Structure formats: structure tokens, C-alpha cells
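Fold this complex.
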Amino acid sequence: MTFGILSFGGYVPTFRITRQAIAQAIAWAVPSAKGQKGERAFANWDEDSITLSVEAARNCLAGLSVVPDRVQLASTTLPFADRSNSGVVADALQLGGDMSTEDLAGSRRAGTSALARLAKAGTSTTLLLAADCRETRPGSAQEMLYGHGAAALLLGEGTPVALIRGAASVHEDLVDQYRTADTDYDYALEERWVREEGYNKIVPRAVKAAADAAGVALGEVHRFIFPTSASVAKGLAKILKLGEDRLVDPLALQVGDCGTAHPLLMLSLALETAVPGETLMVVGFGQGADALVIETTPQLAALQASRGPARYIAARRVVENYTMFLSLRERIAFDFGMRAERDNRTAQSTFYRRRHDITGMVGGRCSACNTLQYPRSQVCVKCGALETQNPESLANLIGRVKSYTEDWLAFTPLPPYVYGHVEFADGANCMLEFTDFAPGAVAVGNEVRMVFRIKDFDTRRNFRRYFWKPAPLLAN
Amino acid sequence: MAKGIKDKVAIIGMGCSRFGERWDCGPEELIVEAFKEALADAGIEREQIEMAWLGLFYQEQSAGKSALPLALSLRLPNIPVTRVENMCATGTEALRGAVYAVAAGACDIALAVGVEKLKDTGYAGLPERTKGTFDDLWLPNATAPGAFAQLASAYAARHKIPMEDLKRAMAHVSVKSHDNGVLNPKAHLRKRITEEEAMKAAPVAYPLGLLDCCGVSDGAACAIVTTVEKAREMGFKDLVTVKAMQLAPSNGYEMSNTGWDGSYLLTTRVASQKAYQEAGITNPREQINMMEVHDCFSVTELVVMEDLGISPEGGASKDILDGVFDRDGKVPCQLDGGLKCFGHPIGASGLRMAYEMYLQLLGRAGDRQIASPSIGLTHNLGGHPFRNVASVSLFGLYAS
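Structure:
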């Protein structure tokens, strides 16, 4: 039994907006935007750093019998400043109560720093999650630069798919960019200064220290993960005397910069195609730098086909309309009419009583007739037996659409409001709100996968609640 | 062994306000409008009413909670009054309370009033409200059109009917109802529409368009009931009696089990079978000669034709397009214009349906009168296809 990375995963939301589409909308003020290429990923209205993490975690844990006893969630965009965000994720994954949950915030390095710490003193089986869903001011450089995404690593004792050979961290309070707790947007300082005084001087220190700690020469490291722009990465390669062919693609043209998630997202994607015995250097940057030397093992091959973010990067749905992008991210306050005034107050005592039914989509399986049903109830819906149901989650089941509608009357931030009956195995049937389906994309008989999303915002009391929704199957 | 209430209770007076956007009326004025007509029709004094049932759905957004809105509006002399509610089946529920009270011998004369004042909510359509503390955490925030629209996608898939053809049958349902509403001075909407207009109308919830949906409106309706014996004593000759009243709520089967395929209303089937048994109907298509069903949406009326056993499984669209349910058809449906032309003041609708059957049976339906009415059916449905309360009632002439 060795300590190391037991599994990996990632998630990128399905929506993309092309930089061209953004440029066309803002060219009247920012004519220089016109040359921008590629597209950036952005979260649907019902996604946030908690939901992105849940999907990355599910991707990482798929098919494994290992159950983490600790969940750590690193993000600079945690939805709650005070309410355990990692706790919501743990319940969505149905990990039980006898475990620890930790929120790690305040720095884009929170994910890589946590990994460095685990490398030095790993005990529990830890699910390390990193997610970011940073909003951007319309017309800003960040609007084109940033993406939304999450990554997951499972660490513990076992037969690792990758080992952490060495890690190092340096800290320097160079404010390359910042965001205070009560504001929406990052404030970035001059790129040239950030590159010259920041990346170029700080990253090499951490990289060299990590290589020393791992006992490897830089020349032995096959690939370098610098979660930064191509030009900054090339500059670092020059300074460290590395060939540019050893730089891992930072996903600028397909996804954008996902902040705290980005180094681990790049790592997860690299692990999807890495060969055994490959050495990677992963760097995190932000008021200092973390660097880790990762070496893959022969066990990696067995897991590669069934996880990793590539399938989500491929499942893209391009949005052409800039105002739709702005509205989905609440950068403009679209008028959705009176139905949007609905009071979504949560009765917290009811939620607590039924929290697993909601957060874990736990239904009941009748021990008398074996029928699965949602919600769980005192009396079986099929055979009428009293108090026979055992808890069982529907979250990982594939459903089948039985009926649906596209409702233009009901309120939703992304009209039409799509909902319908979904059938599951062993008799379970549920009417559910659908997500990620384009108009006209649902048909009776479609198979659907369940995803964890925001169900409602309570704008009066600044709360949000979560539930599970059917979404399109991913292409194989 | 209980035999039901066939021919035990007679309706001796009914009233119905004009339905519509009654900006001029609060709930009290609507109640009084309907009650005056019923009182005059029954030829009795208010003091002769011994018990009352109030059907009212919305509370804070409409007339208020408890028995008080009725007791206060009519200044009833401290008689027992009960407010009842079964969503959109509330109107029939009020009648049911009054009917059972006199059938049980608890009193001689009872009153049922249904009222709703929806145009004070400020909404086009039904107001948003919570579904309850647990249901709000997981059920979609569905609208009525969206919930009922799903009957269409499931029905079309099950019977392999192209949606275009189903929409044509649905359009005919609305066209037919409008043709009847033109003849009804109490209806809200009194203009004809065409099939083309219905099929091209603005989408509300796929595949329903604007003209597939009933509107919301204000209204009240009212019935005064007594036993057959008492009615005879009072000198009534032609008696409209209740032949059956049945009710069936969902128990969760439709929404939580794959056994229901989404294309029909299970509760309507249960309630109608029991109603036919109670009334002694063995062949509904032949024996029922007029119907008021819950046409909240055109597709609801369509599937209900099968749920009531009037059309064969999968045969409703053909019957509709063949004119079976038109005014001059075999089993005319919505002779007064239905929910489509009256709108749906929730507490009142079930009683408004009974009102039309009552008028027809007594030959007082004016331009809308059909030739030889003997048995009329009302179908009043509350909730959504997968979770609802269905009531089916039958009315006829005594000893027919």
C-alpha cells in the first residue's frame, strides 16, 4: 500500500461562447477585441462552484469502491461565505456523516497548496476538489480569458495511478490580481509587471525546489503544467531552459482560465492520456507558487477510459448571443416578469429532515415488493406496505423521458422551462425539472443522466437550494 | 349495505353569476349575484337554509379563509358553514357536502356556493404559490399548462398520432366550445374562433398554444338542495336529482411509479366507473346525453373522453373530428362554452357545470337547449395529471 493519487477527474460546463461573439458585441468600445480566437466555457444559470465540484467528484469516483473520509473544496468563488460548501458536496456524493469536510478559500493556489500539504502528510483518503466560477465585467479582458470548471483528485493509501514525488511552496505577497470578499470582479495589475516580477521570478524558485525535493533534474520532467497564458508559459520555458513542446496546453482556446481549478484541471486532462512512468510538474500561482512533481504508474491505464474532463470539454453547446451569456451569469438583470417574484423561502427544518432525499436524491426501495420510488414515503406506492422502504439514491441512474413540455409561461432564467416525467428502473417515476437541453432537444424515450444543480435562488434572503435534474447523456 | 345517493337528493334552485373579469365585484358581490338567482329559483327565504358549504380555493389571494366569507357575505343566521377545497374540483366538493348533508337527514335544505376572485391577484394565469415545504425542495415549479401539456406528448407517443393531427383535434375542441359560448350571456368569451387560429396561436407550453388554454376569471355559482321527499312536499314537479357523486384522488401511483404512462387521467377512470355504478349506467356513450368536463386545456378534454369510457382507447381525436361532442353531436360536451369560454374561477367551476346540466334538464337553456336531455355528466378535476382529484357527478330527472 502506497500513498498517492488514486483517481482523477474534472468537469467543464457545457456552454461555450466564442470570443468572436463577445468581440462583435463589444467592438464599439473595444475594437482590439476583434482578433480573439477560440471559445470560453461558462456555467449555466444553475451551476456554481459547489455543483461543478460535485460533477468533477462523480467523474473521479466513478466505478470505484474507495470511499473518501475527507472532502476538501478549494475555490475563490464558494457560494457560501459561512455554510460548509464542502459539506453540501459530501452529501451530494452520499459519503455519510462520519467524515471531515473542509473549505479552502482565499487564493488561486488553494488547490495546489492542499495537494502539496497532502503530499507531505497524507493520512485520510481525501477527495481534493478545486472549482471556480469567476464572474467577469462586460468588456473586460477577463471576460474572454476566464472559463468555469472543476477538478478532482482522490488521494490515499492503495495502488496509486500517480505518485507525488516532491512538492515545494514559496510565498510572495505580489498582488498580481485580487478580489475582496464583497466584490464581484477581479482587479488585475499590469501584465508586463506581473510577468517580469511575478511569474518569471517566483515560479522558477518553486519549480527548482520541487525538483530537488523529488530528486529529479528538470530535464527528466516530461511535461510542465503552467496554468497561464501561452506567452507567459513560453517565457517560463525559456528561463527554465525547457523545450516549448513540453508545455501542456492551457486550454485557452477551448475552456479558458478556471482559476483555482485550473492547475488540477490541466493535470486531470493530462492524466487521461499520459503513459506510465511519465513525470509532470504542476504549478499553481498566486502570491507565490506551488510546484509538484507527479509521476504516473502502470495502474493509470486501467482508469483512463472511464474518467477525466475530455468528455465534458467535448460536450460543448455554443451560445452565440452575448446578452444571453450576460443574463445567465446575472451580469444584466433581465426582466422575467411577475412570476420571477415567487418567494423561494426554504423551510430549513424541513430541508434538514429530508436533506439526504434532496441533496442525495435518496428515494426508497420497498423491502416487500422491491419497487424503487421517489420520494421515500411511509406507505409503498406500489404494494401499500407500511414502513418498508430502505433508502436508495437515484442520482447515478439513467432515466427515460416519459413526457415533457417546454413551458414559456413559467419562470426560468433560461426559457423555456423544460420539465417532465422521467422513469427509472424498478418502477420509480418522477416529475423533474430538466437542464442543459436546448429547445426541441427533448423527446419521449430519450435517456437522461442526473446532474446536481441549483434548484432555486431565494433572492430575498440570499440563499440557494440544490437538487438533481435530468441532463443530456454524454456522447461516448 | 350502502347504495349511494342516486335519486335521494333534488336540486331545487341554482344560480350563476356572469363570469369574466369582474372588476366591479368583490367575492361578496359575486356570491350575492349567484345566490339571489338560486333563492328566487327555489322560491324560498334565506332563513330556510339550514347548512351551507363554501367552495373557495385561494385564501389570502382571494376571499379569505374559513367559513366566514360566505357567512359574512350572506349574513347567514349563524348556521353551520364549512369551507371546502379540493383544488379545481372545489365547486363540486361544495355541492357534495350539501348533498350528503340532506341525504343523511342532518338538515332539510342545504346551500352550496362556489366563488373565486382571481382577477385581484394581479396575475395573468394562476398566481405563483408554494407547493408545501418539502415539495418546494424538489418538484419543478410547474405551471398548469405545462403539467397538462405533458398529456399530449405521452398520448401522441402511446397512440402513435403525429402531433400535427393531435393539435387539430385539440383545436376542434376549443372551436366547438367557443361556438357554444357565443350562445351564453353568462360566459366571459363569446366570440367564435377558427381551427387555424387555434393551431397557430402563441405557444404557452409545448404543444399547447394560447387557444388550447382556458383563462382565469371571476365568478360564483350556487345550488340549493333538499331531499326528493321534501321537494315533493314543497310542490316541485319536475325534479332534477343527483344520480351519482364520486371522487377519486391520486395516491402517488401516477407520479412515483412507471405503471402510469402519462397519457390518461387514472383518477377520472376510477371516479367515472364508480359514478356509473352508483347511477346504474352500463353504456355511457349511449346513455349519457350531455357532458361538462374539465376543459382547463383542450388536451385534457380530449383524453377525458376516453377516461369517461365515452370514446374508445386512442379514439378520442377521431370522435372529436367527427363532431361527436359538438352541440349537434351524439354526446355534446361543454354546452355552455365550458371552462374555455367561462374561464376558471376555481371554487365556482364545478357548480357552474352543474348549473348548465340543471338548466338543460329543465328545458331552460334557451338557445343552447338540446332536444331530449335525460342524463348529464359533470367532470371536475383539480391538480395536475400526475397528482389530482377527479370528481364525476351525474344528474338527471327524477324517475328517468
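DSSP finds 16 helices and eleven strands in chain B.
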